[in-house]
User: What shape does this take?
Amino acid sequence: MKPENIARAARALYSGHLVAFPTETVYGLGADAQNREAVSRIFSVKGRPQDHPLIVHVSSEELMSEWAVEIPSFAHALAQSFWPGPMTLILKRSKLAQDEVTGGQDTVGLRVPDNETALALLSEFEHLGGKGVAAPSANRFGKVSPTTAAAVENELSDYLSGEDIILDSGQSYVGIESTIIDCTGERPVILRPGAITPAMVEASTGLNVGDLHSRIRVSGSLESHYSPTAAVVLNAQPVEGDGFIAMSSVKTPEGVVRLAAPKTTEEYAHVLYAALRQADELALGKVIAITPEGDDIALAITDRLVRASTPKME
Ligand code: TXA
Ligand code: MG
Assistant: This one.
């Protein structure tokens, strides 16, 4: 990414426009987190309800204390271990975090993404005087998160203005959204599983994260789809004309459209959303996905697949 493109995008953000930018998880749709009008445009471009909180992206852990108060030591430990990286911390908000960003809650979500372009953009924006960039995933509400700039363009170009910018730096390497960890209680609670696993959180903090499975169910918010137009069915036998996603060790039955055959769970996460998008590009009616085994990022993949397979709310 050319420095002048980063500088232009930082200026656009600072003057109230939207910038879609790459992160290691998925692409985000960013606005100056202190600019109410810019933040409200995120909701209209996404078609998302206004009361949904947004994650504030910053270039380093140092900005944590600007956005949050009463930060527990285990949250500092997590930041030290995993930032920049695919992890969002939920903390008690400071006065900087306004209702437009927090959805009216008294907490704020913070993240330092691990992507060169994103970090350069955030640093440049902070250099201009900005404090943080509020950004949800750059998809229309309820749809699959984009992992490439082309996917952002497909989803949002009808809704963006001429002064908004989409930055392109290739395919996001993690491929699914960050692990969200609630740090407002006595110990960390995982609200959304991701590449930072419960075992990693326990190793970093020395604290037990509790029963992840029951937490995942509880956190099932409105944004419970992550779904393509095609119906997603889990762990079934595909028939002719169906799309199929499974580990490479699983053979493709005759007449079935293989959308992904990852060799590892990391690769599964990396290709999952592109595979779901491809199902729609091919106008498939149904996608069969075989959920991966394991306690690592497999948990997060299964979480997203379960949500994608849940019938849409009208
Ligand atoms: O990987 C990611 O987290 C990506 C990239 C762009 O950083 N962002 C992302 O944002 O997935 P979004 O808005 O699509 O999902 C963020 C989730 C939402 O479900 C939101 O409810 C939750 O984070 N969230 C944000 N702030 C929160 C808060 N203060 N309390 C509880 N949940 C919060
Ligand atoms: Mg999202």
About this structure: The first helix runs from residue 3 to 14. Residues 214-220 have pLDDT under 50 and may be disordered. The pocket of magnesium ion (ligand 2) is lined by residues 136-137, 145, 223 (CB under 6 Å).
